[in-house]
Design brief:
The protein is α/β, with parallel strands linked by helices and 365 residues long. The protein is built from eleven helices and twelve strands. The protein has helices at residues 31-48, 68-78, 96-110, 126-129, 137-153, 191-200, 217-229, 251-272, 281-287, 299-313, 329-364, and strands spanning 10-15, 52-55, 83-86, 89-90, 114-119, 156-159, 167-171, 183-187, 203-207, 239-247, 295-297, 317-321. The strands form two sheets. Strands 1-2-3-5-8-9-10-12 form an eight-stranded parallel beta barrel, surrounded by eight helices. Helix 2 packs parallel to helix 3 (96-110) and helix 6 packs parallel to helix 7. The longest helix is centred in the last third of the chain and has 36 residues, at 329-364. It is globular and about 60 Å long. Keywords: Monooxygenase, Oxidoreductase. Residues 10-314 form the Luciferase-like domain.
Length: 365
């Protein structure tokens, strides 16, 4: 593997592999076509120089991916340098041993590029599917996370818990190429989750899908405070941001193109959750206004939003979800291209200049 230049902020894309109808034709592509396009998107992102590609987990007929590790293994052979992560793995209902071994296998296949973002997930269909109760929602996550971290650190593990059989001097194989798999916790908005991530010294991936990003600043502060108090190096406490994204040459074009797909996305997601609300164009324009966290616009507009959040959070990673609501693949391709050719250079220049100014001030003082 050839060395890759490090961007100021890692920029990547992720998919939840939703299979939604086209808002213009009403037609829905097959799971096979959706899977082929996802793997092709990873290949394009790798060739374009993006840093990371993420794949989510759902257990519903209107999503194409239930096993991120299997899909990421296919991507490992189609790509050369891009990091490959789950986004997220529903840790509450996954067996931690199987999760670790699957991603250690991805790490071997990919040459050391696998990561895990562990979370609770937005849906609960996996609980009855795998024999768990939603009454144990929080306890399951805590116990499984504790075991996953032990598996990541040790080749031979003894462990005892409430929800799975005990391990006694169990050999955990294969081992990853990386000394330890990078593990992040997906945080939606609870201080408890942010504090837990900090205490454990793992990365925190913030899902910011709209509104004023300032409201997430307390979570970042809690995370870093808890991490430092637990003895972790500030450099080890990494924050990532994920968000819905759509790019075009101008902000007006991006708004016009994306609105039908974004409204379509929330229409069927709200139906999945038992709600019948629809998004008006006015609602969409408010959600995508310059001060919000919805990354819709020209490259300049999206860079401004990322930089504003960088000032707030000091995050080191941004993952864009660009394929929701039935967005056709040629538009997904264009978004990947614009991220690579327009967004990344602008970010590197802006953040690089900021870092240089900080260094100059230190040297003068």
């Amino acid at each position: 593997m050839t060395a890759k230049k490090q961007n100021s902020i890692e920029i990547g894309v992720y998919t939840l592999a939703d299979i939604g109808p086209d808002p213009f034709t009403g037609k829905t592509i097959s799971a096979k076509q959706r899977m082929d396009e996802i793997i092709q998107a990873a290949k394009l992102a790798d060739e374009a120089g993006l840093d990371i590609f993420g794949v989510g987990e759902h257990h519903r007929l209107d999503y194409a991916v239930s096993s991120p590790a299997v899909v990421l293994s296919a991507m490992a052979y189609a790509t050369k340098q891009i990091k490959l992560t789950s986004a997220t793995s529903v840790l509450s209902t996954l067996d931690p041993v199987r999760l670790y071994e699957d991603f250690a296998t991805v790490d071997l296949i990919s040459g050391g590029r696998a990561e895990i973002i562990a979370g609770r997930g937005a849906f609960v269909e996996s609980f009855p599917l795998f024999g768990y109760s939603t009454n144990d929602y929080n306890e399951l996550f805590s116990e499984h996370l504790d075991l996953l971290l032990k598996l990541n650190e040790n080749e031979i593990v003894s462990w005892n818990g409430k929800f799975r059989s005990a391990l006694t001097e169990a050999e955990i194989a294969p081992r990853s190429i990386q000394k330890q798999l990078p593990i992040w916790i997906g945080v939606g908005g609870t201080p408890e989750s942010a504090e837990r991530a900090g205490k454990l010294g793992v990365g925190m991936a913030l899902a910011i899908l709209g509104g004023d990003p300032l409201r997430f600043k307390p979570l970042v502060d809690i995370y870093r405070k808890a991490g430092i108090e637990a003895g972790h190096s500030p450099d080890a406490l990494k924050v990532g941001v994920t968000g819905h994204t759509y790019l075009a040459e101008t902000t007006e074009q991006a708004m016009d193109e994306f609105y039908p797909y974004y409204a379509n996305y929330w229409n069927y997601v709200n139906r999945q959750r038992g709600m019948g609300t629809r998004m008006s164009r006015g609602d969409f324009e408010q959600l995508a206004s310059p001060e919000t966290a919805l990354f819709v616009g020209s490259p300049e507009q999206v860079v401004e939003k990322i930089l504003r959040q960088h000032e707030l959070f000091g995050h080191t990673r941004f993952l864009a979800q660009v394929d929701i609501g039935g967005v056709p693949f040629h538009k997904v391709e264009r978004n990947i291209e614009l991220l690579a050719t327009e967004v990344i250079p602008r970010l590197n220049k802006a953040i690089g200049n900021d870092e240089k100014q900080d260094t100059d001030l230190i040297s003068i003082s």
